[in-house]
Amino acid sequence: NFSSDEVIRKRLLIDGDGAGDDRRINLLVKSFIKWCNSGSQEEGYSQYQRMLSTLSQCEFSMGKTLLVYDMNLREMENYEKIYKDIENSIAAAHEKISECKKQILQAKRIRKNRQEYDALAKVIQHHPDRHETLKQLEALGKELQNLSHIKENVEDKLELRRKQFHVLLSTIHELQQTLENDEKLSEAEESQETQMEAEAKQ
């Protein structure tokens, strides 16, 4: 009571790749039955040849199936090898990408450093070199030493003028004192003369 779909499905399962092996086996069984029930020698020989032909076809089909099976196995092995090669290639590509990223970062750092070096070089170029700077410092030192001598001379002159001015002030003070004394003496003499004149008139 199998349905037609179930019958077809079972035939496909038995038939394998659909080469008709189940049909050959059925024919072989029928030929064997006919051979067993053959009445004459000619009929038996004919059935025997059919059985040999059917067996040859089955062996050929089986050989082909084994070859296809072996081919599929080799193909699977080949696919596995290709898959492993692809995996190795992908891993190598990831490593190369990682290495390239490191090289890019290093190149960026080198470029940044070069830009900074160029900027510093431009700043340094605007300043005189060390030899010229030392010459300028030496010249400034000599000028500072000369100014120091000038300062000492000026201070010495100022000290001398201060002393001279002090002496002058002392002389003026003494002169003023002398003049005051002389004036007092003159006034006393005039007063004495006036008194003497008054006494003479009496």
Automatic annotation (TrEMBL):
One Gene Ontology term, aspect cellular component: THO complex part of transcription export complex
Leader sequence residues: none
Keyword set, alphabetical order: Coiled coil, Nucleus
Coiled-coil blocks: 76-103
Biological process, per Gene Ontology: mRNA export from nucleus; mRNA processing
Residue span of region Disordered: 181-202
Localization per record: Nucleus
Pfam families membership: THOC7
Functional summary from the UniProt entry: Component of the THO subcomplex of the TREX complex which is thought to couple mRNA transcription, processing and nuclear export, and which specifically associates with spliced mRNA and not with unspliced pre-mRNA. Required for efficient export of polyadenylated RNA. Plays a key structural role in the oligomerization of the THO-DDX39B complex.
Family per record: Belongs to the THOC7 family.
Protein name (Swiss-Prot/TrEMBL): THOC7 protein
